[in-house]
Write a structure and sequence with these properties.
- The protein is an alpha/beta fold.
- The chain has 15 helices and eleven strands.
- Strands 3-2-1-4-5-6 form a six-stranded mixed beta sheet, covered by helices on one side. A five-stranded parallel beta sheet has the order 9-8-7-10-11, sandwiched between helices.
- α1 links the parallel β1 and β2.
- The longest helix is centred in the middle third of the chain and has 19 residues.
- The mean pLDDT is 95.
């Protein structure tokens, strides 16, 4: 088989930790090509990545270094040329790390985006990934037979019971959190997890709403009146790598209506997770925080260009969402479907590229058969072992 890795927005960490192990497994029995630009804005393939794969002489590299190579990240100046090149190459499979969907949608073969596998509160390592038809299709479930659904429930039942213990927080714990967070008790609280906005994150091009995050705060201040309180949390990588003074100032300018909370709460837990539990609603875009709303049954407004599973009951109109929240009548995610999706995600979807037992054929099998009950038992077992290691 001929396999193309199309990687215009790959970061060095992503390549070393996730993609190189996959290349190593696939090149053993298949023809592997890598098409990517040279480094720019924290993305691309450079000497370090080539050195990382120096032992893989079979890999065929196609490194774009023309003057317009930066445009590959968002809207290629030579989109027609890239598409023509890939069509002439005629890969059987294309694995993408690309924010530009229009270009890859024109590629031949089976095309999949390699995306982060994390779905809190599942304990999934940052190196684990999923394959998707589009980058931010959230919560999708295949049609499962009654027998398949029952098998998933049985396989994942011990893990679900452990996860569910997190939802049984006492009223006193909730009261303590709200006091620490300074959340009012006289109006609905809306949780808003801010998304990553470092220069290397070209996926931000798909967001609906103002950018950067400071502008989004001002936009929401105009759209949402003082009947609601907005509790913002920052993306962990923003806290590590981004100058947050502008967004902090934008939020501080509305002290009676909004607050930016630290990433970790007094119990050492993710503040975003605790807010998802205690807030009246969440406003998200393409953030993986949708999974927290799903787990806690929190109504959500999702502003996106991508697909959202029906069972999430996500609103897409802000006025309708606010009206429902104010009336206490907002629909949250379906609890039974949520349980099934988390089980399916852990059993079927996530892939550990560094699994010592993983083969190239295993990778291709996931592309050929996206839903495969034959891998569920091993999937749950590997998740269980990793989750227990995390707890320990």
């Amino acid at each position: 088989m001929r396999i193309l890795f199309y990687l215009p927005v790959v970061t060095p960490w992503w390549f070393d930790a996730i993609l190189a192990p996959m290349v190593e497994r696939l090149v053993e029995a298949h023809e592997v090509h890598i098409l990517a630009p040279v480094p720019w804005s924290g993305t691309g393939i450079g000497p370090d990545q080539l050195a990382r794969c120096a032992h893989l002489a079979q890999v065929q590299w196609h490194i774009v270094d023309g003057a317009d190579h930066p445009t590959m990240r968002y809207a290629p100046a030579d989109r027609a040329g890239i598409i023509a090149f890939v069509r002439a190459l005629a890969p059987d499979y294309v694995l993408c790390r690309s924010a530009d969907c229009e270009t890859v949608n024109a590629f031949p073969g089976t095309v999949r985006h390699i995306m982060e596998g994390g779905a809190a509160p599942l304990s999934i390592p940052p190196e684990w990934v999923i394959f998707q038809e589009a980058p931010f299709d959230h919560g999708l479930l295949p049609d499962l037979s009654e027998a398949e659904a029952a098998r998933l429930d049985t396989l994942f039942s011990p893990e679900w019971e452990r996860l569910s213990a997190q939802r049984r927080a006492s009223r006193q714990m909730r009261k303590a959190f709200r006091a620490w967070a300074g959340l009012p008790g006289d109006r609905p609280v809306l949780a808003i997890p801010l998304e990553y906005e470092h220069e290397e994150n070209f996926f931000a091009m798909h967001r609906i709403g103002a950018r950067p995050n400071a502008a989004l705060v001002e936009e929401l201040a105009e759209q949402i009146d003082d009947r609601f309180f907005l509790a913002f949390t920052n993306h962990p990588l923003n806290e590590q790598h981004v100058d947050n003074r502008a967004v902090a100032a934008a939020i501080a300018a509305h002290p009676e209506r909004m607050r930016l909370l630290p990433g970790i709460d007094p119990d050492g837990a993710s503040t975003t997770a605790t807010l998802a539990r205690d807030a009246d609603g969440m406003i998200i875009g393409d953030s993986k925080a949708f999974a927290l709303a799903a787990f806690y049954g929190t109504p959500m407004l999702r502003r996106t260009h991508f697909r959202t599973a029906d069972w999430l009951n996500a609103y897409d109109d802000i006025d309708a969402f606010l009206t429902a929240i104010a009336a206490g009548e907002a629909n949250g995610p379906d609890a039974e479907a949520a349980r099934r999706w988390f089980a399916f995600h852990a059993a079927n979807n996530v892939l550990d590229p560094n699994d010592p037992d993983l083969t190239g054929e295993d990778i291709l099998a996931r592309l050929n058969t996206p839903t495969d009950p034959a891998r569920w038992e091993n999937g749950v077992a590997r998740y269980r072992a990793t989750a227990l290691e995390t707890v320990a």
